[in-house]
Specification:
With 469 residues, the protein is an alpha/beta fold. The chain has 3 domains: 5-60 and 137-229 and 449-468, Glycogen Phosphorylase B (Rossmann fold); 65-133, no CATH class; 241-444, Glycogen Phosphorylase B (Rossmann fold). It has helices at 18-21, 24-31, 65-84, 101-116, 120-134, 138-150, 166-174, 206-215, 244-250, 273-289, 310-315, 341-353, 364-370, 419-428, 434-444, 452-468; strands at residues 5-11, 34-40, 53-55, 154-157, 179-182, 200-203, 224-226, 258-263, 294-299, 320-322, 327-329, 337-339, 357-359, 375-378, 380-381, 390-391, 411-413. The strands form 4 sheets. The chain has a 7-stranded parallel sheet, with helices on both faces. This is UDP-glycosyltransferase.
């Protein structure tokens, strides 16, 4: 008989690691006397943190799975569009690649099959077909062997959007090991990113539970537990906060200045993001010329290692102080860029010691709401070729923004000329949007938010107990 209950934490990509390796999730498991093993395919150095881990051997998909995944997503998006009578869902599709012969063949196959399989019934067939293909791979057999050898009581998958997690969970199902899948982000479910079949699902909120049931009718109520996300737990750990003097000294900040944070977006979401940074920097420069003493901290998107901001930073070095996210790039793909635990402390201190955050549609609004700080959203675009600003950005039409209880949760920056005045307003009345932003945060993430890991482990214990009964 095993001494401890054992849980395999399946980490199919590096990005999802931060929610479970650096938060209360890990310490809560230890306090409950669980044996935790990270089952992963990442270059992260688990040994240096003293974490038990097992590398996924030969994690290679069936060659046709990638095609069927893309077909399924396109068919599902088409079904969502018809079901909701809303064209915004098509915005969630990325263009197919034709950059080489192999990708061209895959893309042609994808387009052809997406026409042949175009109904809700076909979706069920496609999901079954993907599972059948993955159950034929040597990767699946490796997973079977690993599970038979180590005999975990449960498999906990940290993200629902990576097809590399399918074979391990199918292997678990074959051996009657229960599985739970965590829905990674607040915007994922309307995007047709539920790639992973699991026995149970953990979601952030009742709002997300309704979305899961609405978009994926094969998932039933009894399979879903509302836990909240560990993502925001570090903000509630006051031990992560440095003194103002320490934080400012560490990052060469002027102790006499008040700082605004500009949080960068990825190149897909905001291809003209450097222009937004320039506009904000110019607004702060203008305010300083009128007697203010302000600075702008630039935090780039953690998976953006490009040089696209360099010119703006150089031209506005009197205003902009870049503070880089503490993530390590250990591969070429976005999912091999790994967060470091120090970044959680950095983010908490940034939110605590800056006056507000400015960005385009980021969930940083919630990080700042925790610290009772306002958020300003860029609400104009440079999509035209002559880079003339035009009010409105299509990302705010995305489904997840409809969860906003009212538009007062953020300050809307509708034109470059309004930025300076809006910054002055939030400096004079910092609580102007905080109540509405916190209401939004409480709708998106179950409260008390610092107990998410506890609720996750309560659910895991219940599942294991019921499975062993």
């Amino acid at each position: 008989m095993k001494d401890k209950r054992k849980v395999f934490v399946l980490v199919p990509d590096g990005v999802s690691l931060k929610n479970f390796a650096y938060t209360r999730f890990y310490t809560e498991a230890k306090e409950r006397d669980f044996e935790l093993v990270f089952w992963h395919h990442t270059p992260f150095d688990f040994d240096s943190f003293g974490y038990k881990h097992l590398i996924l051997e030969e994690p290679k998909l069936h060659w046709f799975t990638t095609v069927l995944k893309n077909v399924r997503k396109r068919v599902e998006i088409s079904c969502f569009t018809k079901r909701e009578n809303d064209p915004i869902y098509h915005r969630y599709l990325f263009p197919l690649s034709y950059k080489n012969f192999k990708n061209t063949i895959r893309s042609i196959l994808t387009q052809f099959l997406a026409v042949c399989f175009n109904s809700e019934k076909d979706l069920r067939f496609l999901r079954k077909a993907i599972n059948l293909l993955e159950a034929r791979t040597s990767y699946y057999e490796h997973c079977i062997n690993a599970l038979e050898k180590h005999q975990p009581d449960l498999i906990y998958c940290t993200s629902q959007r990576n097809v590399l997690a399918i074979a391990p969970l199918l292997a678990g199902a074959k051996l009657e090991i229960p599985s739970v899948c965590f829905i990674f982000s607040w915007d994922n479910l309307p995007k047709a990113t539920l790639d992973v079949p699991a026995d149970y699902y953990h979601v952030w909120s009742n709002h997300m539970k309704k979305e899961l049931l609405h978009y994926y009718p094969f998932v039933k109520k009894h399979q879903i537990t509302v836990t909240g996300t560990p993502q925001f737990e570090p903000h509630y750990d006051t031990e992560k906060l440095k003194t103002r003097a320490e934080f400012f000294s560490e990052h060469n900040l002027d102790i006499n200045k008040r700082y605004i944070c500009y949080s960068g977006d990825d190149v897909t979401t905001s291809p003209k993001d450097p222009l937004y940074l320039k506009d904000v920097a110019q607004a702060i420069r203008n305010l300083n010329s009128k007697g203010h003493n302000l600075g702008l901290i630039f935090r780039r998107c953690p998976v953006d290692f490009s040089s696209r901001y360099d010119t703006v930073i150089a031209n506005y070095k009197d205003v902009i102080v870049p503070i880089e996210p503490i993530w390590n790039k250990v591969g070429g793909a976005w999912d091999t860029i790994l967060p470091m635990p120090e970044d959680l402390s950095l983010l908490s201190n940034l939110a605590f010691y800056t006056e507000a955050v400015i960005n385009l549609g980021s969930s940083m609004v919630f990080d700042y709401a925790i610290h009772n700080k306002p958020c300003l959203y860029m609400n104009y675009n440079y999509f035209n070729s002559d880079n003339i600003p035009k009010e409105g950005v299509y990302v705010y039409n995305y489904v997840h923004f409809r969860s906003m209880p009212n538009s007062d949760a953020v300050v809307w920056l509708n034109h470059p000329n309004t930025i300076a005045k809006s910054i002055e307003m939030v400096l004079e009345s910092p609580n102007v949007t905080v109540c509405a932003a916190r209401a939004w945060y409480e709708k998106i993430n179950k409260h008390p938010a610092d107990s998410a890991s506890m609720r996750i482990w309560d659910s895991i214990e219940t599942i294991i107990k019921n499975n062993q009964a």
